[in-house]
Specification:
Number of helices: 4
Structural class: alpha+beta
Largest sheet: 6 strands, mixed
Order of helices and strands: HHEEHEEEEH
CATH architecture: Roll
Number of domains: 1
CATH class: Alpha Beta
Shape: globular
Number of strands: 6
Length: 142
């Protein structure tokens, strides 16, 4: 597949996260998919990908993703993204806050035969937890 086609696969993954369409998710996630995200529990395969979508859509049913930068070369696609949503459901073990939040992250996705086999994502979990009120924001001196 071309770099452009691989980037389109990543776009389809993010679209499936927004819509919650599991049939679309199955079209872009390989059976051996692995999520390498230090902020989340280990997840693998299509069931793991569904778990990932459900974690985010439960907490932020109106979540939206914007890809702000992307680089695609060979079988890898790197993106810098922003997400926004209102926290109206539990986020893992934390209760809903009703607060709107925005966050940023970067991800590297490996695509083989039109499906994502791996993703390495890091997002600003601390900033998200601060916006939701679970972690205090330090006061600035001066």
């Amino acid at each position: 597949m071309t770099s452009t086609e691989n980037l389109a696969v990543v776009h389809r993954l993010l679209d499936a996260m927004v819509t919650g369409n599991m049939a679309d998710l199955a079209q872009v996630v390989a059976p051996n998919w692995t999520n390498h995200d230090p902020n989340l529990p280990p997840m693998q395969g299509l069931e793991g990908a569904k778990q990932l979508v459900n974690i985010w859509r439960t907490a932020f049913p109106d979540i939206k993703f914007t890809i702000e930068d992307s680089i695609s070369e060979g079988d890898k696609v790197a993106v810098r993204f922003r997400f926004v949503g209102k926290n109206t459901g539990a986020f893992m073990d934390m209760p809903a806050t009703g607060k709107s939040a925005t966050g940023t992250g970067t991800g590297i996705f490996r695509v083989a035969n039109g499906k994502i086999t791996d993703n390495w994502v890091n997002f600003d979990a601390l900033g998200l937890m601060q916006q939701l009120g679970f972690v205090p924001i330090p006061e600035r001196g001066g």
